[in-house]
Amino acid sequence: MNISNLRKQFSFIFTNIMKFHIPKSIYSLLIIFASLILSGCVEYDLGVNFNNANNGELVQHIKLSENLTSFSGDYVSEWLNSLERRARKLEGSAKRISPEEIFVKIPFSNGRELQEKFSGFFNYRTAQKPDTVNNAELPNIASNLVVKDNNFLLLSRNHLTYDLDLRSLSALTSKANSLTGTGSIINLDFSLQTPWGVKNIQQTEDVIQPEQHDKQLIWKLKPGELNHVEVIFWLPNMLGIGTLLIILFVWGGFYLRYTLLTSGFQDIQD
Questions:
Q1: How many other C-beta atoms are found inside a 10 Å radius of the C-beta of residue 97?
Q2: Is this prediction's pTM over 0.85?
Q3: 215 with 193: CB under 8 angstroms?
Q4: Alpha-carbon distance 143 to 125, whole Å?
Q5: How many CA atoms lie within 13 A of 138 on its CB side?
Q6: Could you read off the pLDDT of 206-237 as tens digits, one per residue?
Q7: pLDDT tens string 77-134
Q8: Which residues pair with 50 in a beta bridge?
């Protein structure tokens, strides 16, 4: 049986399913499962970019296959719209490159604000009713990001930990991959970019090894597994640097006023 025949059969089944009173969560999961099987891969890139200790961006780039949007367009459109709403709520922006592609940017000023906005963006389900469309996405995908920083006036030492539990996708991805014959139907990347580079902490032998591109590290996350990322990096503390410059400027003014100018006036009087 080829893919086109499968698509026709699934479309017929879903049309008849809608005649019955089935919870939206179950129906949406059926849509996701069938869509992944019939439509190829989903690309999901999540990145954290630090410019310095006081400025950065949380970025997301999501690209879905055209077949996925055509097969379950209403559900996908509502999901992408929810991303735009959540980004704007967190003082961010979202750009729809196409009906199946979106680019999200959320600014943050420090590690603590990054944690808060990350949690607010990805843990939005708890504030919604369990039968809403937004809450009917893939279940039990727990993500947690923790950033601990220690400031040393001019520099800031940061310890970032990112955990993503994708074990709930194990059965879904293995079944879909076996039916489609593809290597992977869901491509998930996590990247971290800093001005001075990153030191990856390898706690176990099977930890994910990142790919390095200049000052950016990229981790290929594994569906069906518990993914753990842990790094240490240093950042320039612009507040500390600015404070030091102000102190030097004020000290220079006092030195000029009470040392050089005073001694100059005394020389003229003599």
A1: 11
A2: no
A3: yes
A4: 12
A5: 22
A6: 678 899 988 899 999 988 888 999 999 999 98
A7: 888 889 999 999 999 999 999 888 999 999 999 999 999 999 999 876 544 444 444 4
A8: 56
CB 25 within 8 A of CB 130: yes
235 forms beta bridges with 156
Handedness of CA 237, 57, 189, 137 (dihedral sign): positive
Q: Cα separation of 115 and 146, whole Å?
A: 6
| CB neighbour burial string for 104-136, b if at least 16 within 10 angstroms, e if fewer | bbbbbebbebbbebbeebbebeeeeeeeebbbb
Do the Cβ atoms of 186 and 42 come closer than 8 Å? yes
Sequence-separated contacts (24+) of 201-208 with Cβ below 8 Å: 201/230, 201/231, 201/232, 203/228, 203/230
Is residue 100 within 8 Å of residue 51, measured between CB atoms? no
